[in-house]
Amino acid sequence: MMKKLILTLFCVAACLTTVFGQGLETFNFFDYSGTAYIDGGFVGDNGITWSYYHVTGAVAGANNHQINGNGMILRRSEIPSRIVSDPIPNGIGNFSVDMRKAYTSAGDRQVALFVNGNWVADSQIFGSASGADPTIHTFAVSGVNISGNVVIEIRNIQGGTVNRQLTIDNITWTAYSGGNTVEMPVFAPVAGFYTSPVNVSITCATPAATIHYTTDGTTPSTASPIYSTPITISSTTTLKAIGVLGGYNPSAVRTGTYTFPVNVDSITALRGMTADGSTVYRLTSHAILTFKQTFRNQKFFQDTGAGILIDDLNGVITTNYNLMDGVTGLTGKLGVFGNMLQFTPVLDPGTPTSTNNTVTPVAVTLSDLIASFDSYESLLIRVNNVTFALPVTTFANGTVYPVSDGTATFGFRTTFYDVDYISTDIPLEPKDVVCIPNSRTDGNYITARSLADFHQTGGTVNPPSFNPPGGTYSNAIAVTISTTTAGAQIYYTTNGSNPTTSSTFYTQPVQIAQTTVLKAVAYLTGQPLSPVSMATYILPISVASISELRQQAPGTQVYRLTSPAVLTFKQTFRNQKFVQDDTAGILIDDLVGIITTNYNVGDGISNLTGTIAEYGGMIQLTPIIDPGVPTSTGNIPLIVDIALEELNENFNDYESRLVRLTGVYFVTAQSTFANGQVYPLSSDTANANFRTTFYDVDYIGTSIPQTPIILVGIPNSRTDGEYITARNWMDFTLPEIVPPWYFDAMLIQNDAHLNWGYFIPDRDPERIVPWGLTGYRVYRNGAMIADLEGDYHTSYIDPNLPIGNYTYHVRSVFFGSWLSDPTPDIQIIVTNNDDQVQPPLTTSLNGNYPNPFNPLTTIAYTITTPGTVRIDIFNTRGQLIRTLTADHQTAGSYTTIWDGTDSTGQGVSSGIYVYRMTAAGFQPSRKMLLMK
Question: What is the mean pLDDT of each run of 10 residues along the chain (932 residues)?
Fold first, then answer.
């Protein structure tokens, strides 16, 4: 608190000379000590009044998620939670605010900056993984450049009705910087959600400024298209624009995402989409309202194949629908709450497209319901011959009552409020119950809508039953249909329509060879048709490779990968796993946790089964069954070597599979990796973006490599672009920038003949040249005299040396500019034309290359005095593993190779080893790492 007070006093003093030249809000005067979410206002630093909506403090009790003393927690985007200033004079130039995650729930955290009610920019996303995360993130926007009085607003834009708490503190801004920066372009209409194409105009308040824009999520430059006419946008698009003008600084980038719904033609298809809480879907077909309640404005809709819950806490749907009204164009986002799939609307569909529809409940046994609960969830069903367990006598709200129908026991729960059977007697005799299957975190249940849903048993034709019941099957099956009503005939359909006596007459088992919705009724002369029985049989289409799997269209069709796939990466976020074979890779997105087997990287998995989805441009497999124990372990995944240009040109071919990029480097001023950030990559001939997409990886918080590297990673995509992401720190191979392993010199007739390099006789030179070597620099008496291209062995002649003393050394050059340490100095003394070779002045153990290594490494050393030289290998416990040499050697530079074996020829295990040189009383040692 004292630091914040001192900083505030300093800023107040500064403002005495330049009023609002720079602003700072430390929240010192927002001293709310409660934990409830409130609306209100306070007078902050510099006398500026701030209003806040649905926020709380960041220091009290469970709210203690502070950054630096008092701060403010914004709850979620539903209200939205926000803070808004009164008008501030002298405009705004640049802006920043500190942020951190509050509380521990999983989910993206993000804010947006608005100025004068206009959106300016979205912050980076952070804090998405489950668990606490005290990392402080700074959201900075340069070149906002709006003059006059300005109103600054910071708004939480994540979560909807789900908490995504984050703390903000230390808001800073500079005054409008004058006319030397182009003002930020403006979009009309503004970015947002649209259901039909829009024509977007872009304007700039700076006269004569040229506007450049992009529609692929990349940052625009002067090489991007020039805006001239309105841009037609008909699908979800991120539009970015800058303004440029000679003599001015370019404007800040204006970014806007125009979101359009993904059209689906049935509730069955809708239920198969990714429930990410952000993608907007539009049901183009007709859905019928079967139940509604005032609690959270909930409504249940269904079509002929499936049902879904509409959870409308914000009251987006204002049209008053009646039961059995038909509605077209339901639009919203899918989410999962309490294990129940629900649809959160984003707009009101308007007047019903039909009324007084008839819905026939699907006849289901409790055993069928247990086997295929997801197929029936939110769908109106009928369970016959239901018996309630006693001795409870009356129904009460929110209570579970065990029931049985002779096939299984299940839970009947009074989930719906204000229904007319609450406080009435529980039936003593069996009933046929019409109900809606629903779920909570504590289990799956059935719930009746009213007293009218309890029917007398008997006097009707019993509905058919199926054997085997609906479910997922690997091979074609024959389904037997039967009814317990003697003499009843059975009629069925396999196209999802409700059967009548005009449908196919059942005479023999129905052959099911592909995914099928089977419906049947029983008919007895003089009796009405039985309730409809329904079962869904899922038979996956077999595909032989991941490449073939990736070519399938997203939807509800189930596919089974018949070949094994190798796990290359996994994370707890959404239970995601990346797998690949020799043809391609794919992301498994398992939000519900279907796969419960604990796989390790390198495990082979057979019979992966699920549906194909696409989110953010990325193809993913949503599993429907657990493949079980791995069919192999310890596999080494194939890593494809490609150039950055190849990745850019054929990104989809490499998405989700391991690739290796050689000689790339980071183009960033940032010093350490942080979650959810983008870091530009370059290879000098191409550019791409590295993103820290994966959570809980070990390189977060570590230093970003400053030299070119070999990068192994997984290409992945989002709505805002295409990226590559490393799995762990071992995916970064930094060059070993080492000096030449040997360096010698000879004086011949006043010419210094220099020789150096990494050459090893009788070895493949390409295997011993350090990666990234591009040349050498030669130094005489500390000054560079030659800049040479070079290879594993290079020579240079320094001619016509006058009489005198000369000291030489060489540095290796990597990637054109990175210098190694110098070699040991060699001194040459020129006295007359008969001078001979001058020996090296130092004995040294020069190092090993490569390091880490597998299976071979080369150890280089230099001696100045003839004698016995010994090179020994030890383990970390000091035990001698092997002696590589123990010979008499003359002065010079030498190398020896270790192949990772001990003195008996047996391979040693991975780990750290010490190599030691003993020569003429000199005994240096170094470490090396063997990795298998």
Answer: 34 35 83 85 89 87 81 89 93 92 88 90 86 88 84 92 90 79 89 89 92 92 94 92 89 88 93 87 96 96 96 92 96 91 94 93 92 94 89 88 92 94 91 95 95 80 90 89 92 91 96 92 84 89 95 90 96 95 96 92 95 91 94 93 94 96 85 90 91 92 89 93 94 85 81 79 47 90 92 87 94 86 90 55 74 80 88 89 93 86 90 88 83 70
CA distances from 127 to 53, 73, 99, 135, 832 (A): 22, 14, 10, 8, 74
Domain that holds residue 252: 186-258
* 810 in any annotated domain: no
Query: Rounded CA gap, 879 and 106, in Å?
Result: 49
Query: Would you say residue 788 lies in a domain?
Result: no
Q: Indicate whether 67 and 161 sit together in one domain.
A: yes
Token pair belonging to 245: 């003008």
* Domain's final residue, options 623, 656, 672: 623
Q: How many domains does the chain fold into?
A: 8
Residue 16: CB partners within 8 Å, gap ≥ 6?
Answer: none
Of 461, 477, 478, 470, residue with least CA distance to 496: 470
**3-state helix/strand/coil string of 198-253:** EEEEEECCCCCCEEEEECCCCCCCCCCCECCCCEEECCCEEEEEEEECCCCECCCC
- 654 and 694 fall within a common domain: yes
10 Å CB burial of residue 222 (0-12, 13-18, 19+) is exposed
For residue 611, being part of any structural domain is answered with: yes
User: 34 phi and psi, to 5 degrees?
Assistant: -85, -175
pTM over 0.70: no
